[in-house]
Amino acid sequence: MNFYLSQDRARQTTRWLVVFYLLALLVLCAISSLVLLAVVRAFQGYGAGVVMPANLWLPVRPEDWPWLLGVCVFVLGGALIRSLLKMRELSHGGQSVALALGGRKIQPDTRDLQERKMLNVVEEMAIASGMPVPEVYVLDKEEGINAFAAGLTPTDAVIGVTRGAVDKLNREQLQGVVGHEFSHILNGDMRLNLRLIMLISGIEFVSVVGRIFTQSNRRSYSSRGNRKGGGGLVLAGLVLRLLGWFGQLLGRMIQAAVSRQREYLADASAVQFTRNPSAVADALKVIGHEVVEGRLTRTDTHEVSHLFFAQAFRSYFNLLFATHPPLEERIRLLDPAWDGEYLAPQKAVLAEPKSEQAGLERLQGLALAGVAQVVLSETLEASATQSEARDPLSALAAVVAAWWLAQTETAILQQAESLLAGYAFSGLQTAVAEQRQALEALSPAQRLQVIEVAMPALKSLSAAQYHDFRELLQRLMDLDGRRDLYEQVLAQLVLRFLDVHFGLAKPHGVRYRRLSSVTLEVQLLLSMLADYGHETSQNALAQRAYERAMQVLGLPGRQPMETAGMSAQTFEQATHKLALCSPELKQQIVRALLACAEYDHQLLEVERELIVAIAATLDVPIPRALLEWV
């Protein structure tokens, strides 16, 4: 299939559906405003002595416009407040959604063979998609085959799977499912879904107002003079409730339509990550074979059903309310030669060495053999041995070791030895020595990938442990009084994601939409990348690489900045500000970084990984597959 064309088509359709949704909301607000204007007339005793319906529904007059505008503001303001309250309820990160659905976190050091396979698959797809590994939750009571991604940004995202998916799908099929969920994260679907839920909740405000009017019926009949006004209130309330119900119905229809288009996009994107169109198609074929398919029977999923891989509830009006396209249609788009036969689920197995090797070979095909050997070389038969990247202490030590191996000055390393001895992490020095030995054979780029895999284990630290670790890492990097780009990116890759997890920072919002607002920060980042990618003797080449990147941004003539001796706070402040840019502006910045790195017609492995890591800290991860041919 041409998945690039499928991605573009799905994005275009989604835009039109969202526009239609907003237009429908405005029309609903306008009609509601006219109804409430009629209520205002009733309270004013407008045209006393005239039959109520004829009196209330007179055409809008010039003197009515202040009231009409006031009512519009009231309706839109109430809808906005209700939407914001809903956003606050849903904005606690992917972990809160997973727990609300009954999820249980799979511990990084789990000894359950099937769960270890699940963690391996999530690690592979995280590496392919260019983002640190998220936490994984399993819905133990759900036998249907399904999965979901939840969270506002890649920083707080989690992956959830049903027990049926873990037990009934083989490794390649799980890769397809998880790749599909990662594409939801990368394509911004989680934030889009949140906005749709907010808008539907806002529409409910119209129904709430109508309910208040109808419940005021008894109070309105206290006298003959108010009887007509009371009747008007009840009539207006019924109309508002009807409008609210119709608006919610329309909203859910459009929400379902948007969700269906994003599913096509996610299917197409998953092909990029797995390089295996049959992975997603075969998972769908297994779902079609099952009696319960992807449905969840122990959880109320209607509000979040669009987060899942497959239809999570039965709908009798699939054409209107189904959040996912028909299985047959999705399968044929991925596998045009499909014969219509579904696949039986796998039987419970203790090990899958062939599938494990297939996953390793595919990862090697993505030029990631180094990290694959470190993290994924152990097969499921050897699963009793803990993976170093998944043990919290070893993961912590791996970060320190990655910094250690980037140092060249003996005096700095001696100071680091003394610093480690002063921290109350039992066995830390021994663990760091072991990790140094393990990571020494890897390139600096591959060490960054190991840190990405270690992220779930680092999230297992207690708040107090993380506070000490954060302080330790900062002090280590300040020993020489300077940081190069590699050190800065290593620190930000770890601290940015963990700060959000431990409540020390919030997921990035959007504050800057113009390049002119962040020009200095972009100049600083590009100057560091140009200097890092070229030796001192190649200053002229570094200058031209920087100039090429600035041309891509439409900022020719700006000179590079001096980065020698730059403080850690300067870089941290710059990346924090860039993280507040709009997604479109971030993508421009990433394109400029790529233009700078590939100016000499070669993208070094370490340059590629630095750009991938920078993009991840800006919450716009780059799938590594897109950089293969650069």
Tell me, what's the shape? globular
- How would you classify the quaternary structure? single chain
Q: What's the end-to-end separation, in Å?
A: 23 Å
Main sheet specs: 4 strands, mixed
The number of domains? 5
Total strands: the figure is 4
Radius of gyration: 28 Å
Helix count equals: 27
Considering DSSP H and I runs of 4 or more, what fraction of the residues is helical? 55-70%
- SSE-based structural type: mainly alpha
Poorly predicted residue ranges: 1-7, 46-56, 221-226, 350-387
- Placed side by side, the strands forming the largest sheet appear as 1-2-4-3
Instruction: Name the average pLDDT.
Output: 76
Any overview of this molecule?
Strands 1-2-4-3 form a four-stranded mixed β-sheet. Residues 1-7, 46-56, 221-226 and 350-387 have low confidence and may be disordered. It has helices spanning 3-44, 52-56, 65-90, 94-100, 113-129, 163-168, 171-186, 189-215, 217-220, 224-274, 277-289, 318-321, 327-334, 353-365, 369-375, 392-404, 410-421, 428-440, 444-453, 455-458, 463-477, 485-501, 519-532, 539-552, 568-578, 583-597, 605-617, and strands spanning 104-105, 135-139, 147-150, 158-162. It has 630 residues and is an all-alpha fold. The protein folds into five domains: 3-93 and 192-260, no CATH class; 95-184 and 267-334, 2-Layer Sandwich (Zincin-like); 353-382; 388-482, no CATH class; 515-627. It contains 27 helices and four strands. Helix 11 runs antiparallel to helix 13. A hairpin with a 7-residue loop joins strand 3 and strand 4 (158-162). The two termini are 23 Å apart. The longest helix has 51 residues, at 224-274.
